[in-house]
Amino acid sequence: MTMLQKHHAGLSRDEVRLYYNHRCQVSWLDDWYSSRAKALALKLFDPRPGQRLLEVGVGTGQCFVEILKRLQGQGELYGVDLSPEMVRLTNQRAAASGYSGYRVIEGAADKLPFVDQSFDGVFCTYVLDLLPQQEIVQALGEFQRILRPGGRVVLAGLTPGQCPFTRLTAWLWTFIYCRVPLAVGGCRPLSLAPYLRRRQFAHLQRHYLVQRGVPSEIMVASRL
Ligand SMILES: C[S@@+](CC[C@H](N)C(=O)[O-])C[C@H]1O[C@@H](n2cnc3c(N)ncnc32)[C@H](O)[C@@H]1O
Fold first, then answer.
1. φ and ψ at 198, to 5 degrees?
2. Rounded CA gap, 191 and 208, in Å?
3. Which of 54, 98, 127, 218 is least enclosed by beta carbons within 10 angstroms?
4. Using only C-alpha atoms, what is the Rg of the chain?
5. Alpha carbon of 170 to those of 8, 55, 73, 117, 174: distances in Å?
6. 3-state secondary structure (DSSP) of residue 141
7. Residues near ligand 1 with C-beta < 6 Å?
């Protein structure tokens, strides 16, 4: 039994909301290990004018605004985040971009307020690695429900390492997560493929990259 199977050592939903409400002004600091994975995830998401897209867990809205720009004012972009402060910041950043056709709301990944089969794509980075296992399954079920057949999901998050050094950094991260989850933002390394299989997504691509010793994976999957 691994450290993670023994118990969900992470933050409760209220703790996550509180933590990200307070952390929003400095959450760009997380870019030291995640900016390259997010840039690749955006490239793979490949937003096109006319699409109806959703970002779950928008954070400060960096990726949200990039997606909005690529829609070029044609299409619809929705954003959801548990933290009201993150919703406010993303709304502010999106308004400053000058583009219209977006809406950002408070909500949870595992209970999305959208009708079935109404989106072309869902983008979600460094959010599922915060959730308890059961909520990851529920969130992916929600992504599947709201996507049109053939719609794509692009996910990025922390993952276990593939060489002795990155296996050690991921192990250390997990060790800290199990003892002081707040010290690592409540996130831990995960492999998303088994979760995607449970939700009957066709798994199209997995990319693995390491930034400053911290391994991340980017998954692209399509709704069957
Ligand atoms: C580590 S930050 C990542 C933000 C952004 N996606 C990025 O990659 O920069 C996690 C974000 O997910 C939000 N979040 C956490 N749990 C969530 C949930 N169950 N549903 C929706 N958003 C959630 C947090 O409030 C926070 O804004």
1. -60, -30
2. 11
3. 98
4. 16
5. 17, 26, 40, 36, 6
6. helix
7. 16, 20, 30, 38, 56-57, 59, 62, 80-83, 86, 108-109, 125-127, 130-131, 185
Q: What was the pLDDT predicted at 3?
A: 42
CA distance 145 to 118: 9
The CATH classification number of 3-223 equals: 3.40.50.150
The Cα-based distances of 143 to 43, 52, 123, 161 in angstroms read 20, 13, 9, 27
Tokens of 217: 């994976």
Q: The pTM is what?
A: 0.94
Q: What is the 3-class SS of 23-34, one letter each residue?
A: HHHHHHHHHHHH
State how beta strands 201-211 and 214-223 pair.
Answer: antiparallel
Distance 81 CA to ligand 1 centre (A): 6
CA of 20 to the centre of ligand 1 (A): 8
